[in-house]
Amino acid sequence: MAAFWGLTSFLVVALALPRAFVAVAVVIGGWCAALHWQALNQVAAQRSIVASTLWTNFEARIEKITQSPHGSWKAEALITSSQHQPSVEKIILFGQSTAPQLGETISTSGRWEPIPGPRNEGEFDRRAHLARHGIVAQCRISTWHTIRSPNIGWKLTARARQGFEKALVEGIDAASEEAKVIHAMVMGKQPIAGDTVVEPFRQTGTLHLFSVSGQHVNLVAVILWLGLRWLRVPRRHAVFFLIPAIFSYAWITGASAPAMRAAWMASLFLAAFVFQRKSDLMQALSLVIIAALLIDSQMLFLPGVQLSYGIVAVISIGLSLSRHLLNRFSWNDPYVPRELLTPWQLRCENGWQGLLQSTFISCSAFVGSSFLTVAYFSMITPISVLANLLLTPLVAALLALSLIATALSPLSNTAASWCNQCNRWVARSCLVVTQQCASIPGSHWVISMHRTREDTLRIFDLPRGGSALSIQGKKADALLDCGNARSFSSIVLPSLRHFGQEPRTLLLSNPTAGHSGGASQVLEQFSLQQIVAPPPATRTPSFRKLMSTAESKHVPCTIANPGTRILLSPGISIQPSHVPPAQDVPARADEQNVIYEMDFHGYRWVFVQDATALMVQDGMDAQKISRCDVLVLGRNRLHSPTLVDLIIAFRPRAVVASHADFPTSESIPDDWQAIARRRKVVLFHQGQTGMVTARVAADGSLTLRSFLTEQTCHFASPLRLRP
Q1: Is residue 70 assigned to a domain?
Q2: What is the rounded distance in angstroms from the CA atom of residue 60 to the CA atom of residue 49?
Q3: What is the pTM of this model?
Q4: How much helix, strand and coil, in percent to the nearest 5, is found in the chain?
Q5: Domain CATH for 142
Q6: What is the pLDDT of residues 318-368, one digit of tens each?
Q7: In 3D, which of 471, 598, 585, 493 has the Cα closest to residue 538?
Q8: Within this chain, do residues 425 and 515 fall inside the same structural domain, yes or no?
Q9: Residue 26 domain-assigned?
């Protein structure tokens, strides 16, 4: 890894600097590699410390903090003093009720725990992401008290951010879609995962507009520059105002790496006017990236940083290559001196050249980002060339109105409100443009580098007894349960996108939130063709919401019918084997469980999920099923069947059982492993194995593999089952 950093740094500098400076590039590249090696060793040492730490008293300074609507909060803190292990520098704190202030130093105590890694393939690796920021531990605290109040710098930062955020939506509904777009584009305040506002921007390749990046900083600089020119401020004097202004904007919006990169590059360009030097985009980029790597060598592993620096580099190369080509498409006769052109001809010439240059920039950005978007987001978006051209003037107008509203807010709330009403229309226009572009056929394609050729089942390991299973076929994909809203947005949805899956069928086994709570988000994120659900439980809010959303989107939602076989893909079909009677609607939602039976290329799978012992017996009596290859089950909170009863009823060759430490009713009994060994059944205990993946090879064999452990199970052929 260190060699990779040294080679990368050398290539970046060698491309931008003359040959005489190649030796300098080699030295700087080696320096970056050494710093990165040191950072890796430091992270490894901190992880070993946290793994052995139980409880400690410590002091920490709050550097970032977010509060949820439910009263809980999460903060990124810098350890200033610790009772036992002072070498841990940063930590994530979780708490309830009253939250500390930004920049406040608190004293508290708690158990330092290592940040858990992903338990499902394709899930966002939060542990690796935080390690890039030097954070390897987390702690839940119940009480704390203040040691030192925030200094004047932290107070001004917090006050400025709060005032800026409030001024942006003065006079409009803060919960509206337009307010979400304004907050995202101006401050980089991302909507929650799975929000309907995000999807059209993702499908058009313009999701970078929802984070404060180089485009935002540059547009702010241009807007301020035009304002100063209108006030007839001399260019040299304007530079001394613009540089602090763009750094202030980057700092107020969170000082993200792309924003700071753009601020430094813009400063270098503006400084060139003062010293009467010719500015060069590639050289400025090289200087900034080398300085960034010397400060934090982990930075380049972040997808946002790679996209930010990489796209700027490709744009620089594209502009240099297209310079002569642009001159060939001039609006006026190139042999006519510009002094002889009329003002109208000059405006046409400048506008045409600006349009051509913007088109080349948009095309270069698409080419430069395509590989990274496929690698990280499993999507390629040709429509982004057009979408970026249409959105750039709208984003510029939105930023300009936001700055005006912020300036007017201390003087007149009414004037700021009028300005925000105009901005609300601009934000709505941005939404309409992205939605229309995303609806164009061929505007975006799902292309995953991780999708397997074989038909695959993935049984997710979700917290608190949740359930979700994805079925990947050659012709279509499907979902059996989807977890609750939080599990779907943070675990299931990222995994589906990682493998390039787009479910067309959603089957639900249970109307409880742990099984179907995220179904409404499935409808928003994918173009479902059908939903199969248990009899509706009127007392389940998430299930009622699903019914109304499906009706509004004209997605057929049918009630599971025993014996009705549904063809999902060639070789894959599923049917309900037990459905609770419709007259049992007033019963507990946990009792409304459908047992599904699936034919997976000849292998019989039975999904018991959270069925009670009585449901299992009823289903077996009705269908007279004597044996299956794989049994997938959860835990009913009151009347869960025993493993012995399940083995007697189904006689499976393998069992995949979900597990959750809390609540205890969702945990697998300790004796199940011993029972499975005695009965010669392979048990996948998902509390230990995490996600379980099953694939059918070309020779017809079935292989089950766990994600966290090396446990595997291989069947050469399906059993001949007696109906």
Answers
A1: yes
A2: 17
A3: 0.84
A4: 50, 20, 35
A5: 2.40.50.140
A6: 777 776 666 666 666 666 677 777 788 777 777 777 777 778 778 877 887
A7: 585
A8: no
A9: no
With a CB cutoff of 8 Å and minimum separation 6, the contacts of 310 are 368, 369, 372
What is the number of structural domains in the chain? 3
Q: Give the contacts of 350 (CB within 8 A, at least 6 positions apart).
A: none
Model pLDDT, residue 529: 93
Same domain (yes/no): 422, 474: no
If one counts every other C-beta atom within 10 angstroms of the C-beta of residue 691, the result is 27
Region of 122 (left: φ > 0; alpha: ψ -120 to 50; beta: rest) is: left
Task: Give 669-685 pLDDT, tens digit per residue.
Answer: 889 999 999 999 999 99
Q: Are 306 and 313 spatial neighbours (Cβ–Cβ below 8 Å)?
A: no
Residue 680's pLDDT is 92
- For residues 653 and 606, membership in a common domain is answered with yes
Residues 494 and 572 in one domain: yes
| 499 to 121, 124, 202, 208, 516: CA distances (angstroms) | 9, 13, 16, 22, 22
Do 180 and 211 fall within a single domain? yes
* CB within 8 Å of 390: residues ≥ 6 apart: 433, 437
Residues 382-426: pLDDT tens digits?
898 889 888 988 999 999 999 999 989 888 888 899 999 999 999
Show the domain range for 417: 161-438
Please choose, from the candidates 397, 435, 555, the residue with its C-alpha nearest in 3D space to the C-alpha of residue 177.
435
**H or E stretch at 349:** helix 343-377
Q: Is the pLDDT of residue 502 over 80?
A: yes
Same domain, 433 and 473: no
Are both 553 and 509 inside the same structural domain?
yes
In a domain, 11, yes or no: no
Taking 60 as the threshold, does the pLDDT of residue 590 lie above it? yes
